[in-house]
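Reopening: structure tokens for the zinc ion complex, inputs below.
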Amino acid sequence: MDKLWAPWRVKYVTTIVDKHKGCVFCRIKDETRKDRSNYVIHRGQHAFIVLNIYPYNNGHLMVIPYRHVNDTAKLNREERTELYDLIENIKVVLKKVMKCQGFNVGINLGKVAGAGFPGHVHVHIVPRWKGDVNFMPVTAQTKVISQSLKEVHKLLTDEYKKTY
Ligand SMILES: [Zn+2]
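Re-run output (same inputs, fresh job):
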């Protein structure tokens, strides 16, 4: 059987792999037409907001700079400013939509600090309610999430557009 020889394709595949370096956040950043299936809530100029598909709690999401850097120290002023603006915006939206009463906002820098993807900085935002667990479950499987990601994504995306 003849094999299809497609050197252009090899180059294409290599380029894609190089560009993403296996980074899930860079992949989501580049997949601009898959925002719904990737659960992207909002795209800014320097950063975007996406639901965590392994949530610690309902509405657990991440604010992520587009640039693949492993430390917030490497972000320039514009990127930091927008990153923080998006954090504040999405807190307002989460409060409105999910009626949460508090948040855990956190950045894990480095593998030793617990970063799941240490190569690309991301800020976790976890909504909290009175009476939910007082500790972070180690794995997502230990906690029952009452709303589907799809449902939460739609609610948050609609509200974000309405508010900002
Ligand atoms: Zn990346």
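The two ends are 57 Å apart (CA to CA). The longest helix spans residues 77-98. Marking as resolved unless the reporter disagrees.
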